[in-house]
Amino acid sequence: MKILDIPQSGKRGLNVSQDGQFGQISRAQGRVANPRTPSQMTVRDNLSHVSANWRALTEVQRAAWMAAAKDVMSNPRLNQSGSLSGFQLFTKINCTLAQFGEDQVVAPPAEPQFAALAPQGLVITNTGGVVALKLTCPASPGTNTIVRGSTPLSQGRETCNDFRVLGMCPEAVAGVSDITGLYTDRYGVPPAGKKVYVRVNQVVNGWESLGRTFWAIVPAAS
């Protein structure tokens, strides 16, 4: 339920506080689902391997990560953020590299200047019952544009913050990139009347750019 209180976030006793769409909320702690899906286990394996690699670094190498991390801020929480630790930056970079099948690094890579994102919008069609999801791309998305998606939602939903990696954005053909296969492999064919959210961003040397979110409603079959 929504509450009026000092800003707070996290667990206290059997209650959990968090920032909601319309203000701070408090709810009873629930049982956390742990289905151990292949994607979950891959992320956990990557984290385990990256942590082991951090311990295997020399002290000079760890010091380099600590120095680089001072200029990298955490995501804001309760309007507050701080610089990362060396281990956090090492984990952030190398878990991202591992997720996309790239080699891990022992030295902190310089933060890149990202190019403009190619995808500009999401279009969903339903021709004879065949649903297609496409990103409008006036320019090539290249090979480093990530596509994330959410499960189909009620079209009454105004926001979405729960995204999962679907894969790399396919090359655009005639100004559109077809992400139907990426989406349906993860979530199946979205039903007519449902709203689909996708988020795109770029990854370079383990660094990720800020994302852009698009949505569209699956139309009735035409």
Describe what this molecule looks like in 3D.
By secondary structure, the protein is an alpha+beta fold. The chain folds into two domains: 38-99, no CATH class; 121-217, Sandwich (Immunoglobulin-like). 23% of the residues lie in helices and 28% in strands. It contains four helices and twelve strands, in the order βββαααββββββαβββ. The protein has helices at 38-56, 59-69, 86-99, 180-187, and strands at 10-12, 15-20, 23-28, 121-127, 130-136, 145-149, 153-154, 164-168, 176-178, 194-204, 207-208, 212-217. The strands form three sheets. Strands 6, 7, 8, 10, 11 and 12 form a six-stranded antiparallel beta sheet that branches. A three-stranded antiparallel beta sheet has the order 1-2-3, with no helix packed on it. The chain has a three-stranded antiparallel beta sheet with strand order 4-5-9. A hairpin with a 2-residue loop joins β10 (194-204) and β11 (207-208). The relative contact order is 0.13. The model has no long low-confidence stretch (mean pLDDT 92).
